[in-house]
Amino acid sequence: MICFPNAKINLGLNIVSKRDDGYHNLETVFYPIMIKDALEIIETPNLEKDIFVESGIKTGTTAENNLVMKALHLIRSHYSIPPVEVHLLKQIPFGAGIGGGSSDAAFMLKLINSKYSLGASSNELAGMASQLGADCPFFIYNKPMFATGIGEKLEEVEVSFENYYLILVKPEIFVSTKDAFASIEPKQPDMSLKEIIKHPIENWKNLMVNDFEKSIFPKYPMIEHIKQKLYALGAVYASMSGSGSSVYGIFNKKTDLKHHFDGCFVWEQE
Ligand SMILES: C[C@@](CO)(OP(=O)(O)O)[C@H](O)COP(=O)(O)OP(=O)(O)OC[C@H]1O[C@@H](n2ccc(N)nc2=O)[C@H](O)[C@@H]1O
Ligand SMILES: Nc1ncnc2c1ncn2[C@@H]1O[C@H](COP(=O)(O)OP(=O)(O)O)[C@@H](O)[C@H]1O
Predict the structure, then answer these.
(1) I need a surface site. Which of 7, 27, 77, 86 has the fewest CB within 10 A?
(2) Which residues are catalytic?
């Protein structure tokens, strides 16, 4: 049985306060984008323990610390699941602020739930996902969501780029989410993202921010350069996604932009 975990971008990101457990309360809108990994589980008779095979982009993870295996062990602690062979084809860049690892883990929970007809509800799966990563519960629902708390309180929102064109650019820079949070001064936003998102996309430039940009841009000028270039090329809105290093641009019409970003991973909406 196979599935195709996809990535996300953050539309705005306000880091509101630091919590006693070291995590941060935030406000963001998660928006699914269709850069995809492939995740397969194969049931092999007489297998004594799980097998994990990773191909594609090298994440440097192992069968012990890859999030798909952590997801497998977690769901197995609730349900009886036999040893399986797991194949993960990595195509979503990591350290990119687009949640690839969290998505793989959430899709593993959904895959096991379907394959073994466990009947767990989305809410139950989201509860398990929250133990694997702050971004993880969103990928259980995988539709545009306004998120608060550490990212686990989710509310569906209406937002679509149907008449627009989206491009995502990731330079050869890998940002650690933990380090990115460490250099943030939390603050209450002037206007809630839930309100901002209702404005026309043309107004977002003046209203919507990603709080990580302020600390990440001075450290990695290349990321800011990409954002400025997207605006120079005519983007209606451009922003870093999550803790970086990816930057996305939203355009009014499809234009050939790839050649402007040599040396970067570039994904364009079909
Ligand atoms: C910043 C965001 C924005 O969407 O995405 P990415 O840039 O990673 O994609 C997320 O909040 C990341 O979610 P996720 O990547 O699942 O984070 P986790 O693995 O749970 O946490 C990694 C580390 O980030 C910090 N962390 C994470 C989430 C949060 N709300 N507050 C935090 O302080 C903690 O130090 C934690 O140890
Ligand atoms: N299935 C996975 N895919 C990618 N990274 C993973 C996975 N499992 C664990 N990791 C670890 O998580 C880190 C962050 O990966 P990821 O969530 O894809 O990045 P980000 O959301 O910051 O773009 C990686 O550097 C890697 O060490």
Answers:
(1) 77
(2) 8, 135
